[in-house]
Amino acid sequence: MSFAPLLNTTFLRACLGQATEHTPIWLMRQAGRYLPEYCATRAKAGSFMGLATNVDYATEVTLQPLARYPLDASILFSDILTVPDAMGLGLSFQQGEGPKFEKVVRDEAAVAELAVPDMDKLRYVFDAVTSIRRALNGRVPLIGFSGSPWTLACYMVEGGGSQDYRHVKTLMYARPDLMHRVLAINADAVAQYLNAQIDAGAQAVMVFDSWGGVLADGAFQEFSLAYTARVLTQLKRHGTDGAVVPRVVFTKGGGQWLPEMMPLACDVLGLDWTTHLGRARAVLADALAHPATDGQAVRPTALQGNIDPNVLFAPPEAVRAQARAVLDSFGTPHIDAARPGVTHIFNLGHGISQFTPPEHVEHLVDEVHRHSAQMRR
Fold this sequence. Notes:
By secondary structure, this protein is of the alpha/beta class. The protein is built from 15 helices and 9 strands.
């Protein structure tokens, strides 16, 4: 499988701790309801799953934000719940209600029925990856993704979104043996899923641990972090073209566990807006100064984030000021081309809101590029 040469390598180089001319930027949920063109395509598709499972539509919406903004990466348009859907849980999306599963996993019998799904059931995702990669024609790299084992388990046990995570935490505390069984299956499924995306052409992969931050200290390490680690150790390091495929891990609400995340076999750690980038950078820099003794070649060398998405509701001058504040909080950029250092990828601290004015995103992207280039002079 051959693709056009990559023209903008800024994101991939930053992922690997290499100096770049500016701080790269992409946005979580950058193809979404805040864009009128996305809403028009979704209306044609008839439903969210109709959009996500149609290769042409998924390709179209993935490229839409790139037509508006000079972003440094694209991300596959899909959903984090495709894996449990392929397990037979029956995923659906009701307008204004979010995802729902027809079957829930709350007892021994339901857990016993779980298995790593046949990846052919997810062929529509892999076909979309290849289609998008070709349509990009080398403009920017393509990021593939999955939900983390813990985050998938939250939806599988709750049956959808949750305010208090009562069902999943009840299972976790009452029957930890069952929870570990669910998480082990999820981890192996996610690893296969991401490897198939890499084979289809993804140039970086991201694990969204969206609900890791709802766990207590101790529980996070046991039920979330350990299984994210299990995914990462199974991932392919190189893509179909022989290039390194960076791994990104984002744990919403997980900034306090940054030191525990340092042994993860990933390249980038994503942060939400509650963590100070400069202090997080110091943790990574200390780890780089003291190489691991376990022989593990992959260690985090980059941070991703972490502006509050609600900043984008403010006037353009405020958006620009807050973008500068985030860049400044990271500190002087790494500029030594001769050696790796701690690098920064600009992003939101969580997904973009559907109510975001599209023109405000233009100001954000422009200011990140402008100010970060100026910081390197």
